[in-house]
Specification:
By secondary structure, the protein is an all-alpha fold. It is built from six helices and no strands.
Amino acid sequence: MWLFYTFCQNKQILSKVALIGAVSSFISGVLGSWIALSTESQKMTYIMIALIPVGLAASLFSGSFKLKGEVEGVTGWRWKAAVSGVVVGMYEGFFGPGSGAFFLLGIHVFLKTGLIKASGTAKIYDIFANLGAQFVPLPLPAL
């Protein structure tokens, strides 16, 4: 939480992007968690085994891109911000590990922002995806 406060204090969060990301990642976090709770345990075991390398790759390669720029100059930045929130938010709700790195990569690469602002903004996405995963309706019968 202290790191999040530091990002806010130093104005290292892209507020327009964070608002879109908060809404999209919250909704998809709910959906991802709901799908996970509705899936049979045997299927979940196989899915999780397949997703572990994805989370690992995101964690290992999140700092290897060097881009800078302002988000407003990127064509379709609102859609890219929302799609990043939906895709990674669903992953967060469904599985979890590495999602912070995925949020950072999505903002950094697709919105062409610097790593520091991308990292600060990714914290908002991640917080809301986690909150969304907590507000899950009762699961349907196993898929």
